[in-house]
From TrEMBL:
GO terms for molecular function: histone deacetylase activity, NAD-dependent; NAD+ binding; protein-malonyllysine demalonylase activity; protein-succinyllysine desuccinylase activity; zinc ion binding. This is NAD-dependent protein deacylase. It catalyses: N(6)-acetyl-L-lysyl-[protein] + NAD(+) + H2O = 2''-O-acetyl-ADP-D-ribose + nicotinamide + L-lysyl-[protein]; N(6)-succinyl-L-lysyl-[protein] + NAD(+) + H2O = 2''-O-succinyl-ADP-D-ribose + nicotinamide + L-lysyl-[protein]. Zn(2+) binds at residues 117, 120, 136, 139. CDD domains: SIRT5_Af1_CobB. The gene is cobB. Residues 1-229 form the Deacetylase sirtuin-type domain. The active site is at residue 109.
């Protein structure tokens, strides 16, 4: 990796699968039993607030039962040791990258361990249930907290920062994502357009596999440490 200075890494649910967190679109995926339109949209939150808040309460509570796996740990090691620019852009809302020690990280789809106030827009770390009428820490409004999650139809976080990083990347690596959701699924094309080399590490070919210069298929806990080390 001698001629490579700036790296952008995109991760999806597949990097957390071996930690025991369900993926979305595989057998037994999270969305089974729930149509995504019934859960992950502003309309669903307005229509059935308790169902949506409970769905995210359950996923938030499950975080206490899982741990980072060797893939998260390898990326955190790379983050500590890499002297050039590096940005881990995760679509995941779990906190496993942080718990493995990653610092140069952003959650483009939000975080389970964060709450968003629908009254004043305040975002703050939050680990409890959103069904218990907790007050917003900024404006004091009750029952105004929603999951700090980017629903379908909402703008992902920090897109300017991501676009800048993709434009300057020498290497773009996609790990554990099906390439089903935009704008994340388009990042590989943006990176290629700006001259980056592109690598996919995934259990199976993603929807955008043909856009990558190189594809390695297998479990993230094996592929990521092998790539990093
Ligand atoms: C937006 C919330 C605009 C958090 C999520 C047509 C064309 C282009 C776009 C659209 C379109 N129609 C609609 C859109 C827009 C839409 C979209 O892309 N829809 C799709 C379905 C077509 N996108 C949006 O709405 C986005 N916003 O576009 O805003 C805008 C502009 C201006 C102003 C306002 C708005 C917002 C998208 C975010 C939605 N939120 N989740 C949560 O609940 O978790 S998306 C959800 O899918 C998760 O965030 C997840 O991260 C994401 C992607 O899924 P993956 O992570 O890839 O997981 P998946 O299960 O699919 O795949 C897992 C992969 O891992 C598999 O490939 C598997 O093989 C692999 N794997 C499994 N085990 C392992 C493994 N790999 C390695 N090792 C293993 N062990």
């Amino acid at each position: 990796m001698s001629e490579i200075r700036n790296i952008v890494i995109l991760t999806g649910a597949g990097i957390s699968a071996e930690s025991g967190l369900n993926t979305f679109r595989g057998p037994g995926g999270l969305w089974e039993g729930h149509r995504v339109e019934d859960i992950c949209t502003p309309e669903a939150l307005a229509r059935n607030r308790e169902l949506v808040l409970d769905f995210y309460d359950q996923r938030r509570a499950a975080l206490g039962t899982v741990h980072p796996n060797p893939a998260h740990e390898a990326l955190a090691r790379l983050d500590r040791e890499w002297r050039g620019d590096l940005l881990i852009v995760t679509q995941n809302v779990d906190d496993l990258h942080e718990r493995a020690g990653a610092k140069r990280l952003l959650h483009m789809h939000g975080e389970l361990m964060s709450a968003l106030c629908e009254q004043c827009g305040h975002r703050a770390g939050y680990g409890g249930s959103m069904l218990d009428g907790t007050l917003c820490g900024a404006c004091g409004t009750a029952d105004a907290l929603r999951p700090d999650i980017v629903f379908f139809g909402e703008m992902p976080y920090e897109m300017d920062r991501i676009d800048t990083a993709l434009a300057q990347a020498d290497l773009f690596v996609s790990i554990g994502t099906s390439g089903a959701v935009y704008p994340a699924a388009g990042f590989v094309r943006s990176a290629r357009y700006h001259g980056a080399r592109t690598l996919e590490l995934n259990l199976e070919p993603s929807a955008g596999s043909y856009d990558f210069d190189e594809r390695r298929m297998g479990p993230a806990s094996v592929l990521v440490p092998a790539w990093v080390d």
